[in-house]
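Need residues for this backbone.
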């Protein structure tokens, strides 16, 4: 974390996410970082570690999934010494509806010293402590004093600008909400997968090739799908790979040599010379 990020009160978030989500997470962080810069805040930092295959429960099914550790440095913007804690969309109290709380900052909630704060947010009235005008607001915002986190203030939407003096408080609040929603998404292993998620769909091509290489090594060679008489081979390599990917108790260990072999295969398949072969060329001729 650099000095500007420290001064902005940014935090270090360390998460582990499915590898297939890395591209989308990178795009989200880049967009949020650019927005932070436009609002006069420092940019964010994002770093990925080495991937590994883990057993993860998704939609009630235990899957083999390639996961990657991610370190994110960022945070919600400050507004003239005040930090965003939460956005509250107020329900109809007379109808027994509770509030919807978005983008809440668990660190600032903990520092507030109020153990009941989360419950209070879910049922608090739509008051504004800046104008003290009592009216039926649909949305309010909670802020924390930068130097004294125990000091909180609830503001109505129309009073945020007057209280903070920022020319575009709505943009700041939107950025803060999006950032906190991103952190929530990073903690959810089922986010973005849908109800049809399956083990073999959660792994990258290099991992599948590495697994195939490990099975070939174990079996002493590639076993074709059909034998010489044309009958199916139940121990065929493709069958073994599929069974291993979908098994609840994997039995194959991938060695470094298998991963190296997979890298060579993937490099060959993605080589420009290979990709430039016209579709109508018979590669088996000659």
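Answer:
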């Amino acid at each position: 974390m650099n000095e500007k990020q420290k001064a902005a009160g940014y935090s270090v978030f360390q998460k582990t996410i499915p590898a297939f989500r890395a591209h989308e997470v990178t795009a989200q962080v880049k967009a949020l970082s650019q927005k932070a810069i436009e609002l006069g805040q420092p940019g964010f930092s994002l770093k990925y570690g080495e991937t590994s295959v883990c057993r993860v429960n998704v939609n009630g099914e235990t899957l083999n999934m390639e996961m990657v550790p991610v370190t994110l440095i960022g945070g919600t913007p400050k507004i003239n010494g005040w930090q965003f804690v939460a956005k509250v969309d107020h329900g109809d109290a007379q109808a027994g509806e509770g509030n919807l709380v978005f983008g809440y900052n668990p660190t600032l909630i903990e520092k507030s010293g109020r153990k009941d704060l989360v419950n209070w947010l879910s049922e608090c009235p739509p008051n504004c402590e800046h104008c003290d005008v009592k009216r039926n607001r649909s949305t309010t915002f909670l802020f924390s004093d930068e130097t004294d986190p125990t000091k909180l203030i609830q503001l109505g939407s129309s009073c945020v600008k007057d209280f903070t003096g920022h020319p575009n408080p709505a943009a700041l609040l939107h950025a803060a909400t999006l950032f906190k929603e991103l952190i929530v998404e990073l903690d959810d292993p089922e986010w973005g997968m849908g109800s049809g998620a399956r083990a073999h769909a959660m792994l990258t091509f290099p991992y599948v090739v590495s697994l195939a290489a490990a099975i070939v090594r174990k079996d002493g060679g590639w076993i074709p799908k059909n034998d010489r008489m044309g009958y199916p081979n139940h121990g065929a390599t493709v069958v073994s790979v599929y069974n291993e990917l979908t098994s609840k108790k994997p039995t194959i260990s991938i060695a470094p040599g298998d991963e190296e072999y997979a890298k060579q295969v993937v490099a060959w398949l993605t080589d420009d010379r290979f990709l430039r072969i016209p579709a109508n060329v018979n590669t088996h001729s000659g």
